[in-house]
Specification:
two-stranded antiparallel ribbon, 4 helices, 7-stranded mixed β-sheet
């Protein structure tokens, strides 16, 4: 698979993707409402024919990929691992190039589950609560390849909140997530 190189990801992020961030909105009570996976919208890192009023055409496959990403994030936040596994292709390839607490490359959905179970169990044991703080989802010029930029918030055992920015390059094939390269600060 031809994934974008690290330098290209940084270049892409620095050249205008920030305009599509999901904004934190104020609720009627004056409190701040955090974004949810459902708030994530699709934008394009590719040139598409414009529709009426300058809106880019969103294909059905783009919308399906966005829905897969939203369900994946919701499963991670809610710790719904069985539902999460159903989103992945059997021959899933999942890469964590900067990880120091898990394999950097995992081949196969079952191998992914086996590698991640100790991490998921540690999250439960330490009572880590996750939330989605921000989310961007971008279609690319390559069919089936998408870029997700998001920040997960975490509260560990009712302590101080921390934020973890993440970037995922996601390949969708046959209605499932087939490949992920995830960049995060370990």
């Amino acid at each position: 698979m031809r994934f974008l190189a690290n330098a290209l990801v940084v270049s892409v992020l620095a050249t205008g993707c920030a305009h599509s961030k999901v904004a934190v909105t104020a609720s009627g009570s004056g409190s701040i409402a955090k974004p949810r996976a459902a708030d994530c919208k699709i934008t394009f890192l590719r040139n598409l024919p414009a529709k009426e009023h300058g809106m880019a055409a969103i294909s059905q496959s783009d919308e399906e990929a966005l829905q897969l990403f939203k369900r994946q994030i919701a499963c991670v936040v809610e710790d719904e691992r069985e539902a999460q596994m159903r989103l992945y292709a059997e021959d899933l390839r999942y890469e964590f190039p900067f990880a120091n607490d898990r394999p950097r490359r995992i081949e196969g959905r079952d191998a992914f589950r086996k590698a991640m179970e100790p991490i998921w169990e540690r999250r439960r044991k330490n009572r880590v609560e996750l939330s989605l703080e921000s989310c961007e989802f971008h279609a690319t010029d390559e069919e089936g390849l998408f870029l997700a930029v998001f920040t997960l918030g975490a509260v560990i055992d009712q302590g101080e909140p921390v934020s973890s920015p993440c970037v995922q390059l996601i390949r969708v094939r046959g209605g499932r997530i087939a490949e992920v390269r995830e960049y995060f600060e370990p």
